[in-house]
Amino acid sequence: MKVLDYSIVVPVYKTTTSLTHLSQQVQSLFGSDLSDKTFELIFVNDSPFSESTCQTLVEIASQSPQVKVINLTKNFGQQAAVLCGIAYSKGQYIITMDDDMQHDPLDIPKLIEKQSHDIVIASFRNKKHSLFKRVTSLIKGYFDCLILKKPKDVKLTSFRLFNRTVADNMLEIKTPYPFIPALLFLVSNDVVNVQLPHYPRYEGESNYTLRKMLGLFSNLLINNSSVLLKYIGFLGLFISFASFIYAGLIVYQKIFLDIAFQGWSSIMVSILFFGGVIMFTLGVIGEYLIRIIHTSERRPNYFVRDVNGE
Question: What is the DSSP string of 155-194?
Answer without folding.
Answer: ---S-EEEEHHHHHHHHHS--SS--HHHHHHHH---EEEE
